[in-house]
DNA sequence: CTGACTTGCCACGGAATCCGAACCGGAGCG
DNA sequence: CGCTCCGGTTCGGATTCCGTGGCAAGTCAG
C-alpha cells in the first residue's frame, strides 16, 4: 500500500515476467523462468522486488455482477476547495472502488459498486452529496461492461 | 473472455476463498483450505470452477505510471446509432483498457493508458473521433489516481 | 591495482505444494 | 434397490517453493 520507491527501471526481462503473470497470476516461477530465460530463483527474486516496489501485485479480480452487485456507476463530481480532501473522504466509502482526480468538467471521478438502485441512491444522497465541498454530481449508470483489461504492461 | 455461465450461486465458502485470493493471488491452496475449512483439493476444484465460470481471475495488476505510461484519461463519448458497435471498435484499440456502456450524458466511457500527451492526442483524433457514429467526446485527464480496489467481493 | 562491498544470477536440497485419480457418502430418481 | 451425479476427501508421485551459499561482474575508495 506504499509504493515509496525509486523509479526502478524495468528491463525487458522484468516486463516479460509481468506479462506472464498478467495472463495467469498463478503460473509457477519455473515455468516463467523457462519463458523468459532465467532460473526459477531469479524469477522469484524479481517478482518479490516488483511487488515490494508496488509496481505489480497479484490478486484475484472478480465480476461484480456475479457476486450480487447489480448496479455499478461512474460518478462525476464537481468540487469547490481542496479536491484532495474530498477525494480522501469519498475513497473512505466502502462502496467506492475507484477514485481519481481529473482535469476537465469534473474534478473527481469515482466508480461505485452497489447491490441495487436503492443503495446507489442512498450512497449518492446520504454519503457523497453530503460531503463538504461537493458542489454537484453527475451519475453514469453502467449498462454493460464491455472490456476490462489488466495487461497494459508493455505494448 | 467469455463469462458464458449464468446461475452459479456463490456460497459463503466460495466467497471466503475469493477474499483470500483478493488479498494475495499466490496464496497456496492448502493455506486457503485451512482458512476456509476445506481440504486442499476441494479449494483447488472450486478455484478452477470459479475461474472457468468467469466469476474470478487471478492476474497481476500493475501501476501504469511505473511502467512508463505517464498519461491516463477517461473519455466520455456521445454516440449516434448503435452504441454496441462503437464500443466494440473502441475496445479493439490497444491503448483502451476499459470500456463501459452507460446511461447519462455519455453513451460510452473509455479509460485509456498512453505513454504521453502526444499519444493521447493521436488516439483521440486519429482513432476514436474517426469511428463512425461518434458524435462528440470529452476527455478527463487523470491528475492523480487516488484509490483503486479490487476487493469489492463481499462486504 | 586492489580489496571491500554490492548486485544479480545460479545451484542445491529439504519441505511444502500441486495435481490427477481413486474413493466415498448423500441426494435425487426410476 | 440400483444407478448417477456432485462435491468432498484421501493419497502418492511429480513439481514447485524457498532459504542458503557460491560465483561473477560491477562499483567505489584508497
From TrEMBL, chains A, B:
GO aspect biological process, one term: response to amino acid
Pfam families: AsnC_trans_reg (PF01037), HTH_AsnC-type (PF13404)
GO terms for cellular component: cytosol
Gene Ontology molecular function, alphabetical: sequence-specific DNA binding
Domain HTH asnC-type: residue ranges: 10-70
Keyword Transcription regulation attributed: yes
Keyword Membrane among record annotations: no
Keywords: DNA-binding, Transcription, Transcription regulation
PANTHER family: LEUCINE-RESPONSIVE REGULATORY PROTEIN, TRANSCRIPTIONAL REGULATOR AZLB
Protein name from the UniProt record: Lrp/AsnC family transcriptional regulator
Amino acid at each position: 500500500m506504499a509504493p515509496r520507491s525509486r523509479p526502478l527501471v524495468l528491463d525487458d526481462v522484468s516486463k516479460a515476467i509481468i506479462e506472464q503473470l498478467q495472463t495467469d497470476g498463478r503460473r509457477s516461477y519455473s515455468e516463467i523462468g523457462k519463458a523468459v530465460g532465467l532460473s526459477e530463483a531469479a524469477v522469484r527474486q524479481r517478482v518479490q522486488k516488483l511487488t515490494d516496489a508496488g509496481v505489480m501485485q497479484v490478486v484475484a479480480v472478480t465480476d461484480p455482477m456475479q457476486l450480487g452487485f447489480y448496479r455499478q456507476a461512474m460518478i462525476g463530481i464537481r468540487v469547490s476547495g481542496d479536491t484532495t480532501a474530498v477525494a480522501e473522504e469519498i475513497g473512505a466509502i466502502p462502496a467506492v472502488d475507484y477514485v481519481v482526480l481529473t482535469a476537465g468538467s469534473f474534478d473527481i471521478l469515482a466508480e461505485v459498486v452497489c447491490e441495487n438502485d436503492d443503495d446507489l441512491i442512498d450512497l449518492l444522497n446520504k454519503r457523497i452529496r453530503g460531503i463538504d465541498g461537493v458542489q454537484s454530481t453527475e451519475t453514469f449508470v453502467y449498462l454493460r461492461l464491455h472490456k476490462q483489461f489488466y495487461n497494459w504492461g508493455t505494448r
